[in-house]
Hints:
Number of strands: 12
Order of helices and strands: HEHEHEHEEHEHEHEHEHEHEEH
Structural class: alpha/beta
CATH class of the largest domain: Alpha Beta
Bound molecules: alpha-L-arabinofuranose
Amino acid sequence: MNRKMFGVLCLLLLSLMTKGCAGRPPETEQPLRYEEELGDFSEYIVVGFSQVGSESDWRMASTNSFKNTFTEEKGYYLLFEDAQQKQENQLKSIRNFILQEVDYIILDPIVETGWEAVLQEARDAEIPVILADRSVKVEDEELYTCWVGSDFEKEGRMAGEWLASYLEKQNRSDEEICIVTLQGTPGSTAQIGRTEGFASVLEEHPNWEMLEYQSGDFTQAKGQEVMERFLESYEQIDVVVSENDNMAFGAIDAIRGAGKTCGPDGDIILLSFDASRAALNAMLEGKINADFECNPILAPKVEEVIQKLEADETIEKRQYTEERYFDTSMNLKEILKERTY
Length: 341
Ligand code: AHR
């Protein structure tokens, strides 16, 4: 059995052991010696992917994108690890990928900090690390090969600019506007970028008041919980900025539960990010005012990077995906016909 095949088998077994024994910690952190020959992986490009979790519709679309792109038919063997929104799980997965001598590591980092040591270990093992979606903050940018994802700061700015022009059309430019923000996972690139982007427009409007920022961790349940607290705490809320669609769905439930309404004809303006199909449908129903796209179909771009690396071609360090926004002035029914996520 060659080294790569042995490595992949070990990782599969390790992952089966840690997941199979519910509640029981694995007996050893070392890979098992497994003599039985299950198949030959040497013909594949072995890719280890550490995914954030399954917290949102966006995340599910992202997972599908990677699983549908890195297929055995195309010559890849994908080792997929769901970190369940915990950085410690991602660190463990990456170390296992290194131990198993995968060809490439793809990392969607939950938060930006705390990666130096493990990325150095990957570099020492000469395994290229490609960042997808979120990014890392490291002093030495050579610790990763490249990053493929969204311009989150631009998304946040776009949302602020959209709000300014919407209020102008409503003749509300000079009114006092009270805003609350449902933030994503603190310290994640998506949270930092969207918060900072929106804040840059907020600064230009002294009559806009940000009442509070609170994290809903990008999930519907927490989004609802936080929105319920906001509604109890503040009598006047004019705008809710929800840093993803799933928290916006939670917010919609909380707003309805408090006897209020949101959307173009409602009491509260609701802005969201991702622009998933479910959110565009909610917009069609008049519950969301505008949604700022974040493209989860990143795997084809990552595959392009891997193919270039295989061919020894140069790689662009930062690669942004194209994104737009949607609001109720558009023909959403037509847009939904072509929307894949
Ligand atoms: O990092 C991308 C963000 O993470 C998406 O906006 C959100 O839905 C996901 O959970």
